[in-house]
Fold this sequence. Notes:
The protein is an alpha+beta fold. It is 41% helix and 11% strand. It is built from five helices and two strands; from the N terminus they run ααααββα. The chain has helices at 5-8, 16-26, 32-39, 43-55, 88-96; strands at 59-64, 67-72. Strand 1 (59-64) and strand 2 form a beta hairpin. Helix 2 (16-26) crosses helix 3 (32-39). The longest helix has 13 residues, at 43-55. It starts with a helix and ends in a 13-residue tail after the last helix. 15% of the residues are buried. The model is unreliable at 104-109 (pLDDT under 50).
Amino acid sequence: MTASVADVSEWSFLTNHAHVMVCLRRDPGARIRDIANAIGITERAAQRIVAELEAGGYITKERSGRRNRYTIHGQQPLRHRLEHDSHVGELLDLLADGGPPPAASSSSA
């Protein structure tokens, strides 16, 4: 059985938790509504994910006026046993900024 084009477009390499972290890395003051819209999930799902990330120690939330501001704790390990030796910050460095920092990339002569 072969996958149809619709089947192929329905999956992603990253979880919605990772997508929320990417959004927060790009904009620590992002509203839940904006995060949900960027990812393509409901606001309720985005709120649940933010609460889970906060409970897991991956982010902290601080009130700033009428909005929340989020701090990512990049030293936290990735949760799956295959990636447990890597940290959230390393993944976000690759995803949120479009690749590794220039100092970290090697040049070929």
